[in-house]
Please model this.
Amino acid sequence: MPSDADLLERFRSGDVRALARAISLVERRDPTVRDLEDALRSDSRLPGVTGFTGAPGTGKSTLVDAVVSLLRTRKQSVAVLATDPNSPFTGGAILGDRIRMQRHALDPKVFIRSMGARGHLGGLSLASREAIRLLGAFGFDEVILETVGVGQSELEVAAVADTTVVVLTPNLGDSVQMIKAGILEIADVFVVNKADIDGHGRVVAELRTMLNMAPKTSWKPPIIPTVATRQEGVEQLWVAVLAHRTHLEKTGKAKELSERRLRDETAEVAAELARERTRRALREDPTLAERLLKDGTPYRTAEEILRTRTDN
Model:
């Protein structure tokens, strides 16, 4: 196993295996990654971050693949973090998204990585934020987050991305149901993918109606039809993403978002450290654990642990 100094040297030399190793440390919540992050702070620059979410079957991976191809024609480097579901017991992530993007596998300016939450509530957004900083320090221009679009993960992606793209398709009745379930609120750009299928006009019309009924805001999400398999509409999609970024900068919301996310991340890290301290205290102090089981007072026990115990 390489030392911290070796890992830092390899990272700075552009060794992609060192980047992969650093992200693995982040996923495992290994505290040794802190020294690496501190050493890289002077190299740090934040890449643009775009999140893609939507129901399974909407063609998100194909669309992300098409966006990667577009960015590479513009000589921009791009990293894809495919935020997969995983087992809370084994932490094993599904690698289907990486398999579908194999045509970029030999391109040194493209990095594709599946990430999972390792069974931690909120763990995906925390790990993603750290991974994005590492990708920025490594020199990537753009980072794309892709989620499976079920449960909490889509909201976590929206909490991390500068721009959230919600992908819908005409052949899934669940698409509009997703909007009704509240995903309308996190979308900065809507994509109706597979626009060569009958019914895409109906989805666009329903979306437009919903947006017209929504409370007025300074940014109205555009609706972009695409056929990702033929690269159609992908350039217009990226124009919309860049327009949203410009809007955030001009209105001051980019700075506001950045500051809020830093505060939120600090709160998440504090909660993670508190959970670990509490588990360790209950594991190492049989008397405390026995009293908890006897009295059934988790709040009182937790307060006692946080008030009286510190890490050595």
